[in-house]
Amino acid sequence: MKEKSTFEDNMNELGRIVSELEKGDIPLEKAVQLYAEGVKLAASCRKQLDKAQIKITEDGGDISSEK
Q1: In this structure, is the dihedral angle defined by the CA atoms of residues 28, 32, 34 and 35, taken in order, positive or negative?
Q2: Cα separation, 43 vs 26, whole angstroms
Q3: Which of 30, 40, 42, 56 could cysteine-pair with 61, CB 3.0–4.6 Å?
Q4: Could you give the CA distance from residue 50 to residue 46 in angstroms, rounded to a whole number?
């Protein structure tokens, strides 16, 4: 996993990992490695989403306040 990956890059990689795990024809050791990588990617995506939410909140981007 790259340090400065975009949200979209992380989601695409996570999707690839999920697809590979769903096939079920990989050795257990490889599956565990992919799962661990997927957990890290999911955490990174969550962190990026949290930062975006904070930025929107700080910028007063609450759509319900617009008329």
Answers
A1: positive
A2: 24
A3: 56
A4: 6
